[in-house]
């Protein structure tokens, strides 16, 4: 078992695991669509953190490709949040509720 | 010593914020806890010598996505945690979700830590991995990569953002009925 600390990969991976599991928990148990969106953001953040951590500890030195991949994850997460919230507004306008148990269709 | 303390503070902040965001009933508080979690991850990026990524995290996530989510929360029906009675089957489903999350966390941590040990073994052998791009941490290296080997993904990301912008505006646009329909 590797030692835990700022200069070990394991600590970052453990934090990312907790973040991802929290995201799965939120996405699986939240009834409100915004709560599900929070879970998705958590999962994407865990993935970006893993990219950055593997890039940092890849070989003898820092590999900036990991950070570049993480930047793309941030871009995708921002686009996903904007699109999901636009859809939520449309659903809310048609059915006045964004409870995922009650909302079954986009058309009103 | 101070560095280690700061590192553990960032780790605990990120993990506590994530767990709180996943479990707190009040959606507004959950979004605020997500912001705390994102700030902790930004601190972890600083420890990973990814200062550019830390800035992006603060500006895009905390400044953009989180504000968007908080704004949308104000439209939600049960914003201040108006607790309705939870049916028993939903509680069972919640427990199943928690068990699923625990299994995912356990498997991820197990695989990740095993992998980390492998990686550190590989690192100890000289020449086991190809040479990395030489360059200090900073946005300049990332910028060179974006217009170098990552050019196509960079352009695709730009197209994705444009399509998202146009699509979001189209979706939330109010559909006005034609004058004939209003008269009739």
- Spatial shape of chain B: extended
Per DSSP E runs of 2 or more residues, the count of β-strands of chain B stands at 0
Number of helices of chain A: 3
Characterize the overall form of chain A. Answer: elongated
Largest sheet of chain B: none
Unreliably modeled segments of chain B: 127-136
Which segments of chain A are poorly predicted (pLDDT under 50) over 5 or more consecutive residues?
Answer: none
CATH architecture term of chain A:
Orthogonal Bundle
Measured as a percent range, the helix fraction of chain B is over 70%
List the defining traits of the structure above:
heterodimer; A: Helix Hairpins; 3 helices; 71% helix; B: 184 residues; 7 helices; extended
Kindly describe this structure.
The complex is a heterodimer of chains A (108) and B (184). By secondary structure, chain A is mainly α. The mean pLDDT of chain A is 84. The radius of gyration of chain A is 18 Å and the shape is elongated. Chain A has one domain (9-95): Helix Hairpins (Orthogonal Bundle). Helices cover 71% and strands 0% of the residues of chain A. Chain B has seven helices and no strands. Chain B has helices spanning 2-23, 27-47, 51-73, 88-124, 139-146, 151-172, 179-183. The chains are: A mainly alpha (108), B mainly alpha (184).
